[in-house]
Every structure is written in structure tokens, then in C-alpha cells.
Amino acid sequence: MSQSPAAKRYAEALFQLAQKNNAVDAVSTDMAEIKKVLEENKELMVLLDSPKITAEQKRQMFDTLFAGAQTIVLNALKVILDKGRIHELPAIVDAFMTLSYDASGAAEAVVYSTTTLTEDELTRISSTFAKKVGKEKLHITNKIDPSLLGGIKVQVGNLIYDSTVATKLESLKRTLIG
Questions:
Q1: Which residues contact 45 (CB under 8 A, 6 or more apart)?
Q2: How much of the chain, in percent, has pLDDT values that exceed 90?
Q3: DSSP letters along 89-150, please?
Q4: Alpha carbons 164 and 111: distance in angstroms, whole number
Q5: Contact yes or no for 101/126 (Cβ under 8 A)
Q6: Is residue 80 a contact partner of residue 13, using CB atoms and an 8 Å limit?
Q7: Taking the domains of the chain in order of start, what are their residue ranges?
Q8: For 116, what's the count of Cα atoms within 13 Å in the CB-facing half-sphere?
Q9: How far apart are alpha carbons 142 and 122 in whole angstroms?
Q10: 25 burial via Cβ count (<10 Å: 0-12, 13-18, 19+)
Q11: pLDDT of residue 85
Q12: How confident is the model at residue 4 (pLDDT cuts 50, 70, 90)?
């Protein structure tokens, strides 16, 4: 996702505030939960961006949806809303998570596989690929893609490590034809 300069500034401000209050881990947990909620409920962003719903109703929605969140996070959401930047919330969350991961020597990764991977497999993948990208650990999201036929594809930022059967077959096909 492309991040606007404003999204990066909001994320940096929230990260600095979390650092100042020694709450980076707690805020990161809350931001990860917000990311999950936004990804699973696409209609929520449409609702939050709707001019038919008042700002006060949106604030109440935040208070209800994220009742257990850190006060820092709730206040940040309300500031983002008040400044007319609610449409950038997904980018702000992503930018914050990147800052948080970088500070802890970690990175976010997506692992595509044909079946759900076990915790042990995810741990081994994390340790193996973290070394390749110069990080201590990876925070992995496992996505199922039956078209891969077998193997895995790991994406860390802009880097993609592809050892899927589908890719190997395509490579073999190009070798035989070309």
C-alpha cells in the first residue's frame, strides 16, 4: 500500500508518543487489532468515511469498537477523525506497524501456502527468512493459495522468495520451450 506523507507523520507522532509513555508494545498490539478489524470488515472504512454519520457518532463507534484499547490509541483515532484523515487510517496503521517492527528488529511477512501452516513451521520460516533480510524475527501472516500446488512463497516487504511447485513448473516449461 502506498503511504502518503500525512499517514507517515501521524504514524511517527503516535510512535513517538507510545515511546514517551513506554507503551510501544501495548499500542502495537492495539494497532495490529485495528488492522485486523479493518481487513475483516471492509464496510467499516466506508462507514467511517461516510459524511452521513456525524463525527460524534464516529467517536462513539471508536469507543465501542476499541473499548479495551490504550487511551493513546483512542485519542489518536479521534484526532485522525477530527483532522479529516480517517480515509488514511489503514495507511497510518501500516506505517505505525512498520516503525514498531523496525524498532524491535522485526519485519512483517506474508507466507503463501496451499494449507494452513503450523506454529512450528511458521517459527522455522521466521527464523530462516529473518536472517536473509537482516532482521531478528518476522511477524508472519499465513495466506492460503491453492493455485500454488505445493511449496511456499514468502514476501517480506518488496522481496519475494518463491519456492512453489507452480513456479518451478513454469520455469521448467520455459526451459523446455525456449
A1: 38, 87, 89, 90
A2: 79
A3: HHHHHHHHHHHHHHHTTEEEEEEEESSPPPHHHHHHHHHHHHHHTT-SEEEEEEEE-GGG-S
A4: 11
A5: no
A6: no
A7: 5-102, 106-177
A8: 2
A9: 8
A10: exposed
A11: 92
A12: confident
Residue 140: φ, ψ to 5°: -100, 135
pLDDT in tens, 121-173: 999 999 999 999 999 999 999 999 998 889 999 999 889 999 999 889 999 99
The correct answer on CATH 3.40.50.170 for the domain covering 5-102 is: no
15 close to 96: Cβ distance less than 8 angstroms: yes
* Residue 146 CA from chain centroid, whole number: 22
The total number of residues shown for the chain amounts to: 178
C-alpha 18/C-alpha 100 separation (Å) is 10
Distance CA 90, CA 134 (A): 26
- The residue among 11, 159, 2 whose CA lies nearest residue 99 is 11
